[in-house]
Design brief:
It is built from three helices and four strands. With 120 residues, it is of the alpha+beta class. The protein has one domain: Nuclear Transport Factor 2, Chain: A. α1 packs parallel to α3. It is flat. The protein starts with a helix and ends with a helix. About 12% of the residues have low confidence.
Amino acid sequence: MIGKYYTRAIFLVLVVAMSTVTSLECANAADNRVPVLEGKIAPWEAITIAQSKISGLPIQANFEFDEGKWFYGVMIMSENTIKEVDIDAVTGEVGDIEILTPQDEADEVKAELTKALGSK
């Protein structure tokens, strides 16, 4: 049973990673600065590291570029909340841990898509 959840989480990592790279390419197309993909930590390692800090069911892991570096944002369902654990994609170090709300996530996605499209 748990294998099914890990398979789903890894699939989501791949889908989100591909869409993140595509978004970055679009967002940076105007200035020709596409960040170099780098990372030594595999998606399932990021999930395992995140679960060592927060117990619960992994939902997804986003491969993201922010503030000049690549990291995984691993979302874990824990105690009726969704928590995101940032894992450095090169070192595996744990960064911020935050509680997510659906509205905050929707606002963040909307802002990123608007910026990618060049709208205000």
